[in-house]
Structures are given as structure tokens and as C-alpha cells.
């Protein structure tokens, strides 16, 4: 199949899922066309089967807001015609599903029919999409998609609760390439980050308010009072500066390393002992899954889709949002006993194996085939 993939190319779960999906589909013989405003961060190699088409928005001083949706719709029309793209898979409803619907309508005028698969990733529903300013357009775009998927049962339930949805929603969870997480970092650079007796705690996110960054710091603060420990903070975003400030106030700055964005999270995870994800809401928690695949247990909130990934008492522990005391207690329980820590590490890895790329990507392929079939009949 010739598949067009639209996504946000920056660091963030939806772009990562879209990119890894495209790359795996290309290995399975499909021709993939990424259409977005810059090359996705995890898309390193382009090939015969993997193409990238940049959407550019010409600046015009009259416009207070430059019309990205318009540029994207036009680019989709041009690329579908030029490359014979058969199906468009858009990740994140806003504004991608909306722009794709406009492209589909323009193409129909020329006798070309391209079905749209929309994948809902989380904040496009729970935080942004349900805002009254966007809700009618998001509802419309979901209902006009030819197939809709969500990354967890919890996100599906939220979508049906928040919007008036007529379409069926298929749950297709986030996935990981388990081969990438085979412990092959013989040069695992733990020694550069911490001494042998220190536990290494890690958090990876885009440092938005929804990630509840202060709770990461507070849980770590409680841990380091009980045992020698270091905290690795990976990512960039508006909450980074206040987080550095909080570390200074607590007098733990020397124990916290802020890395910024990184393309080498597998290397950081390979020397981590525990992962913290205390988010206010989280449709799935790809970062937690990536940690688990590296054999890192997870202390998380029990919100959204996280309980579908992190199994309480097995791969880590779940606590109510903001319950720093419970999260700290659970973290210390895992970390203070070496044998228990090893067991949680093994369990985390085993739990992640349910989400292997080879089990999940065929589910998307089936959705594409069914959608094309259904649209041919219509
Ligand atoms: O977590 C973020 O802020 C990034 C966001 C995104 O849209 O890129 O991630 C969402 O999609 C991921 C991939 O499906 C999910 O694993 C994340 O849980 C989800 N984030 C939230 O729901 C907050």
C-alpha cells in the first residue's frame, strides 16, 4: 500500500508512534510518505520506501495566525496526486483530521478517493480537543474519518464521554520494537552518571504541566533521604525551569541532571533503576512502556490508560494523582532491596512484551485493508 502519514514531528509520543509505525510498515513492503512541517525526530533514514514531504507555510504579515491547516490540506492533495497515495493515516485529531477531510473533499472533486484513518493520542481529546472552541471541529473530523483508532481503552471511553461520536473506535495500543531494547549496551555508561551505591531514577517527558513535574522532584527528594540516589530529567518544556528552581530550594541540585531533549533515551534507560510518571492525565504512557522494555520498573499515577500498561505490584506501582507520599513509599519499597529491585526489573520487561511492534502493527495494516475495502464498496 502507499500510505501517507501526518503527525507532529517533534519530541512527543504521537510523533514517535507515527514515525515508528511508518518505518515498520516500510519494512513490511509498504511505501510510506510522511507529510509534516519538519522531518520527524526519530526518522533518521529516508529510503526508496520512506519519503518525507515538508509542509511550508508562507509568512504573510496580514495574518496574525499563519494558516497551517490550509497549507497541509493543499500539500496532502498534491502528494496524493503525485505519488498515488492510497490511504491517509493522521495522528492527533487537531488539526490533522480536519485538514485531511478538506484534502479528501478537494480530491473527490477530481474523482480521486482517499480514505482517512485518524488515530487519537490523548491530549487532542482530553485537554485540547474538548475545549469548547475546538469541540465542534474535532467531533466533525472524528465522525468524518473512515476509521478511527485510540491508543487505549481509557482514551476510547473518554472520547465517547466527551464527544458525540457516531463512528466505531478501534483500540490499538502504543507499541515498541523489543529488539531495540535487548540489553546490548555493553558500554552502558552508568559510571559516568552515578557511583555504584547510588540508585538512578529517571523521568522523560515534554515537561508540560500535565506531567506533574513537581511531583517527580518531590518523590525523588523523599527517595534520596533514604538512600544515595541521582535523578535524570530528560526532555524540554515550560516546566523545566520551575523544576530546576524547586531542586535548588530543596537543596538537591547536585543530585539532579537535566539532559534536555535526547535521541538516546535507550542509553539513559539502560542504567536507570526506576522511572517516574506522575501525570495528571495520560492516555497511554509510551515513556513508561519504553522504560519497562528497558527493564525499568515504573512508579506512576493511576490515571487514564496508564493502568493498561503499568501493572500494579508487578511492573511497578500506581498511586492516585498527586499522592506523593504513596509514590515515595512505593519507590523506596522497590529500591531499598536489591533482590526485590531485580524482580521488579524482570517483571517490567516481561510486561512490556505484550506491546511488541510485531503484534500491534498488523492491527493497523488490517484497519487500512478493511477501510480501503469498505470504501471501494461504497
Ligand atoms: O505526552 C505528551 O504530552 C505527548 C503526547 C503526544 O500527543 O505526542 O502523548 C500522547 O500520545 C502518546 C502516544 O500515543 C501517549 O503515549 C501519551 O500518553 C499521550 N499523552 C497524554 O495523554 C498526556
Beta content comes to: 15-25%
Which architecture of the largest domain per CATH?
3-Layer(aba) Sandwich
- Order of strands across the biggest sheet? 3-2-1-4-5-6-7
Please report the total strand number as a whole number. 13
Structural notes for this entry:
By secondary structure, the protein is of the alpha/beta class. It has two domains: 2-175 and 357-377, Glycogen Phosphorylase B (Rossmann fold, 3-Layer(aba) Sandwich); 178-355, 3-Layer(aba) Sandwich (Rossmann fold), CATH 3.40.50.2000. Helices cover 42% and strands 16% of the residues. It has helices spanning 13-27, 68-83, 96-109, 123-126, 135-144, 153-162, 190-193, 213-226, 240-250, 265-269, 286-293, 324-335, 338-352, 357-377; strands at 2-6, 31-36, 50-54, 87-91, 116-120, 147-150, 169-171, 199-204, 229-234, 256-260, 274-277, 298-301, 316-319. α8 (213-226) runs parallel beside α9 (240-250), α8 packs across α12 (324-335) and α11 (286-293) packs across α13. The longest helix is centred in the last third of the chain and has 21 residues, at 357-377. The site of ligand GMT has 20 residues, from α1.
Describe the SSE topology.
Elements lengths: L1 E5 L6 H15 L3 E6 L13 E5 L13 H16 L3 E5 L4 H14 L6 E5 L2 H4 L8 H10 L2 E4 L2 H10 L6 E3 L18 H4 L5 E6 L8 H14 L2 E6 L5 H11 L5 E5 L4 H5 L4 E4 L8 H8 L4 E4 L14 E4 L4 H12 L2 H15 L4 H21 L1
Parallel strand pairs: 1-2, 1-4, 2-3, 4-5, 5-6, 6-7, 8-9, 8-11, 9-10, 11-12, 12-13
Helix pairs in contact: 2-3, 8-9, 8-12, 11-13
The structure holds ligand GMT.
Summarize, please.
With 378 residues, the protein is an alpha/beta fold. It has helices at residues 13-27, 68-83, 96-109, 123-126, 135-144, 153-162, 190-193, 213-226, 240-250, 265-269, 286-293, 324-335, 338-352, 357-377; strands at residues 2-6, 31-36, 50-54, 87-91, 116-120, 147-150, 169-171, 199-204, 229-234, 256-260, 274-277, 298-301, 316-319.
Amino acid at each position: 500500500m502507499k500510505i501517507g502519514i501526518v503527525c507532529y514531528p517533534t519530541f512527543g509520543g504521537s510523533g514517535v508512534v507515527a514515525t515508528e509505525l511508518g518505518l515498520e510498515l516500510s519494512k513490511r513492503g509498504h511505501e510510506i510518505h510522511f507529510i509534516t512541517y519538519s522531518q520527524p525526530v526519530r526518522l533518521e533514514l529516508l529510503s526508496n520506501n520512506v519519503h518525507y514531504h515538508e509542509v511550508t507555510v508562507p509568512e504573510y504579515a496580514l495574518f496574525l495566525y499563519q494558516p497551517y491547516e490550509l497549507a497541509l490540506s493543499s500539500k496532502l492533495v498534491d502528494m496524493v496526486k503525485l505519488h498515488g497515495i492510497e490511504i491517509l493515516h493522521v495522528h492527533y485529531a487537531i488539526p490533522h483530521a480536519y485538514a485531511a477531510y478538506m484534502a479528501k473533499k478537494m480530491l473527490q472533486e477530481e474523482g480521486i478517493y482517499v480514505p482517512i484513518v485518524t488515530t487519537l493520542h490523548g491530549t487532542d481529546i482530553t485537554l485540547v480537543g474538548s475545549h469548547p472552541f475546538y469541540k465542534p471541529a474535532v467531533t466533525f473530523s472524528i465522525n468524518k474519518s473512515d476509521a478511527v483508532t485510540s491508543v487505549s481503552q481509557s482514551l476510547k471511553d473518554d472520547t465517547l464521554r466527551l464527544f458525540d461520536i457516531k463512528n466505531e473506535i478501534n483500540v490499538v495500543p502504543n507499541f515498541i520494537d523489543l529488539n531495540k531494547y535487548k540489553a546490548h549496551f555493553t558500554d552502558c555508561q552508568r559510571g559516568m552518571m552515578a557511583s555504584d551505591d547510588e540508585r538512578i531514577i529517571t523521568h522523560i517527558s515534554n515537561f508540560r504541566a500535565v506531567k506533574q513535574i513537581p511531583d517527580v522532584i518531590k518523590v525523588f527528594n523523599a527517595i534520596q533521604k533514604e538512600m544515595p540516589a541521582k535523578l535524570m530529567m530528560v526532555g524540554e518544556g515550560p516546566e523545566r525551569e520551575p523544576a530546576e528552581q524547586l531542586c535548588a530550594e530543596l537543596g538537591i541540585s547536585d543530585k539532579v541532571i537535566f539532559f534536555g531533549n535526547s535521541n538516546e533515551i535507550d542509553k539513559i534507560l539502560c542504567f536507570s533503576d526506576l522511572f517516574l510518571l506522575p501525570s495528571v492525565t495520560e492516555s497511554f504512557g509510551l515513556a513508561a512502556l519504553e522504560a519497562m522494555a528497558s527493564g525499568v520498573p515504573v512508579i506512576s499515577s493511576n490515571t487514564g490508560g496508564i493502568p493498561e500498561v503499568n501493572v500494579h505490584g508487578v511492573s511497578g506501582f500506581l498511586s492516585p494523582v498527586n499522592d506523593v507520599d504513596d509514590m515515595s513509599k512505593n519507590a523506596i519499597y522497590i529500591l531499598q532491596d536489591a533482590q526485590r529491585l531485580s524482580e521488579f526489573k524482570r517483571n517490567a520487561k516481561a510486561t512490556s512484551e505484550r506491546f511488541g511492534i510485531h503484534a500491534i502493527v498488523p492491527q493497523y495494516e488490517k484497519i487500512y485493508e478493511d477501510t480501503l475495502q469498505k470504501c471501494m464498496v461504497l
